[in-house]
User: Fold these one by one.
Assistant:
Number 1:
Amino acid sequence: MEHIKIKIVNDSRNELPAYETHGAAGMDVRAMLDKPVTLAPLERALIPTGLRIQLPEGYECQVRPRSGLALRNGITVLNTPGTVDCDFRGEIGIIIINLSNEPYTVNDGERIAQLVIKQYVRTTWEEVKRLDTTERGDGAFGHTGTN
């Protein structure tokens, strides 16, 4: 498994994002709040983390929901996955939404999302008049059936 070093500035009172298990792909990230934030049903908020990172060129940081928080409380990341680009140097904020029927309070230090570091490639478009054919063709949205 490849390991890379990423520079990070932590202006919060919280520990750095961390892998919770040996095989985890995502690192849990925590809210940095002066006071709790309560989200009504269907309300969203930008939650600060106090973290700024410097990714190597060719890498992004994806912001993804925490599955337990989503299942138990209906709290998820709104723009999933969110992307932190390698040239962004501002604070990472997490856009969360309450999809439950009950208010939910986010507290300082609470694990609210996970960060996954991914390598990416850039593309150059090659404009053509036709695409190669495949067995699937342009079939989409359930065209293969439900069973």
Number 2:
Amino acid sequence: MKAQILVIGNEILNGKTLDTNSKVLAKELTKLGLDIQQIVVISDNQKTIISYLDKALTNAEFIFITGGLGPTSDDVTKQTLNDYFGYDLSMNQEVLAHIKSMFKNRYNSPINEQNIKQAMLPKQARIFINEYGTASGMWFKKNNSHCISLPGVPHEMKHLLIGQIVPTIKSEFNLPQNHIRTVNTIGLGESNIADRLTHWEKNLHPKISVAYLPDLGKVRIRVSTSDKDFQNAQLHINRAIEQLLPLIQDIYYGQDDRPIENVVAELLTEKSLTISCAESYTGGAIANQITSIPGASAYFKGGLVVYNNDMKTDLLGIPKSIIQKLGPANETIVEQMALGTQRRFETDIALATSGNAGPTQGDINVPVGTVFIGLAIMKKVETFEFKMNGPRKQVIERSLNKINELLFHHLK
């Protein structure tokens, strides 16, 4: 079945808010077996919404709308949809009770007329109560087409979609579901991986599709098939994965949505190893990533941001003479930073970064994009030099991926 996604929001159009809802919708709906034709972003304007619906409902069986359901006067989507489908607004007592309960028990705030109006809903529509907010989901129908309106707040939309809408579609529509497995790799580019897997791809079952999804030093290999027979689909995918893994053992780190930093965290925990870091151009990004994972206190002792050269001396014990002679960004400096951090925090492993993330040359003695990483493990220390392309943010993100790659291979 064909589907379209409509994102409503003036704040998205003017660049103030990033649209993440369409990504979540597209991912979940694709897994359901729906064929996503297009994703459109429009303003919360009655004429614009009607113009879109006139075209979309003749071309797709499902229209998914997100946004425009707030309580203020600039949110016109609910009224527009109600009028367009010829429904009647009425007070939904179940939703009203839910909203009152939220304001009393969760918000600890008095309820006003604007909030109460959130319970005024199309009587003929199917209503899905929003557990995390006041804007309910609404399901409209016209001929053989279905229009499902969801709130724009990302976590509310996601919970409503996955918790209620997806199960409803599964139970009422016999769709050939898409079965997807994702294999994660790091350290080798997309084209090189594809070249390595040419023979594997040519010998796959005809129903199996493969896609390569690159992301700053990492490549996800998506293996998928569409089939109403679950067991048959799983058989084909499992066979494809079994044949794939021996070909990528040197770059493989896991499957599906597990980030490499989580895999590294598990290895540190399993091996009862501790880690610390000293950062220059990454500015605390390593420590932030490590501590964003629950349970990091078991292995992470601490980190230092030694951006100023004097701090490399005062906190890590690197002689000023070495820094003055060699400059702050080179393999010798990151080696000394890693060892100094290891001593200071008394950890099994220590990381260090120094380099020029750009965007300008500044007073760093190496070209923009040249970075150095130091890795001290037990009594051994290694240093690495890399050329990272892209703007400053990408240089830092690429560096994090490279650090996790190095840690993964050493720990594995």
